[in-house]
Write a structure and sequence with these properties.
Blueprint: H1 3-15, H2 18-56, E1 60-65, E2 69-70, E3 73-74, H3 85-94, E4 98-113, E5 116-125, H4 129-132, E6 137-140, H5 145-150, E7 154-157, H6 159-165, E8 176-179, E9 182-190, E10 205-209, H7 210-218, E11 225-230, H8 236-250, E12 261-264, H9 266-309, H10 311-319, H11 324-361, H12 369-395, H13 399-404
Parallel strand pairs: 5-10, 7-9
Antiparallel strand pairs: 1-11, 1-12, 2-3, 4-5, 4-8, 4-11, 6-9, 7-10, 8-9
Helix pairs in contact: 1-11, 2-9, 2-11, 2-12, 3-8, 9-11, 9-12, 11-12
């Protein structure tokens, strides 16, 4: 019997009991739909984390001042005063994997413009900062290296600061604001960056030359941390190793002494988040797969009932020349058609459920073609696995006994 004829006969047999066929398919539909939806939620969350990490910067490496131990007490990070801007220049000159380095000095203060004021963080950086962070300007221009050299009283504002200090009709560029009673001229406005991966508002910031923050706001000669950008993601680890060696040498640390600095990369955070997301996706998909197992058992049960109901039909087929292989193929194809039809409906249900979850709960979802293909293959495999026993049982019926069956 040709495969097309086998499928046609299978569809006709399934159409005899439409309601039973629909109810049998229901387990497969729910199982496939649930698997696609849960995988889409997991992959969407993983992609969102990757996008947030990418927003931090271009293959970024954080180098911060470390901790020190005083009278048996370990102070927190950025407690040492050994990290300097000269260290950053040495790293840029001696590490071939690094393309940009920006020193950074932190400060928090009250901003005042006319009758408005706003408390925020001030970051002292150099012109490479916006390149490392992939942070374009919405208006104005970035300060220059010369501004760093002469500690110019200039600054750039984040969007949150602009909204709280200026009216919508005001152009901040060219205006003068006060920070800790010192005047600073606004030369640019940063574009909107949004929420950081750690939940903070990236736009609630003022940036200016790091020497200005050192000398006029913080009153320090060291820096709190540096941001460096590697040439590629593969270069991050060798760059970290070389930076460690250079800083230990420059800080005159003996082999038995701990580092007085801390080096971190967002890739560590990315790997941890991705692993957690993968584990959760597998867990949810495994739970959803139970529906497929239940649906497969339902197919086996209905096919056994079908074999019993059609025993006389099987006997007639064998009597007019059908072989055991023909009968087995016929019932196995019915189980596969039943499973595949349920799988197709389940795929549609899963895709629409993913879209609905994204719209209703504002969760990021990502339906990948691979998950659809796997779901389709899995549903066909369920049909073969659970349909084999009923098909084999039908093929092994004695034709004479089958013809006598009432």
């Amino acid at each position: 019997m040709e495969i097309g004829e086998v499928i046609r006969v299978s569809l006709r047999a399934l159409a005899r009991n439409k309601m039973r066929t629909i109810l049998t398919m229901l387990g497969i539909v729910i199982g496939v739909g649930a698997v696609i939806c849960t995988v889409a939620i997991g992959q969407g969350a993983a992609k969102q984390v990757q996008q947030q990490i990418a927003s931090l910067g271009d293959n970024i490496i954080f180098i911060s001042a470390g901790s020190i131990k005083t009278s048996g007490v370990h102070l927190g990070s950025q407690a040492t005063k050994t990290l300097t801007a000269a260290d950053g220049k040495a790293i840029l000159a001696e590490v071939p994997f690094i393309k940009w380095v920006s020193p950074s000095v932190g400060y928090s203060g009250q901003l005042v413009y006319e009758a408005n004021n706003w408390y925020t963080q001030v970051k002292g950086v150099n012109p490479s900062y916006t390149k490392i962070r992939h942070w374009p300007l919405a208006a104005g221009s970035m300060f220059s290296t010369m501004d760093d050299d002469v500690s110019s009283d200039v600054c750039l504002l984040g969007q949150t600061v602009v909204k709280n200090l200026f009216s919508p009709s005001d152009d901040p560029v060219g205006k003068t604001i006060r920070i800790s009673n010192l005047p600073f001229r606004v030369i640019g406005v940063l574009s909107a960056k949004g929420e950081s991966p750690f939940g903070g508002d990236e736009d609630d910031v003022v940036i200016m030359p790091y020497t200005t923050v050192q000398k006029k706001l913080s009153g320090i000669s060291w820096i709190h941390f540096m941001m460096a950008s590697a040439d590629s993601a593969e270069d991050i680890q060798p760059a970290e190793d070389q930076v460690t060696a250079i800083l230990r040498q420059r800080h005159h640390l003996r082999p038995n002494e701990d580092d007085d600095f801390i080096i971190r990369s967002p890739t560590d955070f990315t790997q941890a988040q991705t692993h957690a997301s993968d584990v959760m996706t597998v867990l949810l998909a495994s739970i959803a797969s139970v529906s497929l197992l239940v649906g497969g058992i339902g197919i086996m049960n209905i096919m056994l009932v079908s074999v019993t109901e059609r025993t006389r039909e099987i006997g007639v087929r064998m009597a007019i020349g059908a072989t055991e292989s023909d009968v087995q193929r016929q019932f196995l194809s019915e189980a596969m058609v039943l499973s595949l039809m349920g799988g197709l409906v389940g795929i549609v249900l899963g895709v629409f459920s993913s879209i609905a979850v994204s719209d209703l709960f504002q969760w990021a979802t990502l339906v990948s073609p691979l998950s659809i293909v796997i779901a389709a293959v899995f549903s066909a495999a369920v049909g073969v696995f659970f349909g084999y026993y009923p098909a084999r049982r039908a093929a092994q019926l004695d034709p004479i006994e089958a013809l006598r069956y009432e």
